[in-house]
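Researcher: Sequence of Cell division inhibitor follows. Predict its structure.
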Amino acid sequence: MGKLYSIRSTQQLPTGIEQAWEFFSNPGNLQLITPQYMNFKIISQLHTNGIYAGQLITYKVKPVLGIPMKWVTIISQVKEHEYFIDVQQSGPYSFWHHEHRFVANDGGTEMIDIVHYKLPLGWLGRLANNLFVQRQLQDIFSYRRQRVEEIFPADIVNK
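Model: Prediction complete. Tokens:
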């Protein structure tokens, strides 16, 4: 079956939950918060009225050694202003489940990402995770944190 790995990231956003939701629930903004070396591009047609349960999103990405890969996810669940979940349909992982949660608080909005993933290829997948996959995912979330701080600077008052 393969080992199940988890990554959790939290970030306080100095903005109201409506603005946070509007930005993060728009798949078109994902490219803005993904490292350029990944060459991340959405290749499916996106709807302008936000995400919805059942929505398929197709990407091209170059996660390892610049090798292009197609990645298809489905938005499995959405509760507006609270959470949405994307699940891989096909791509680099044997399992991918990414929960995006948003919690309004006195400082704005707390954003919580919880990713559960498995890699294919048995012991080779475990080795790849130890050598670079887990570190790369952590680096992507670190980059995302930095970009989000630029997009939602702490000195804005937008509640």
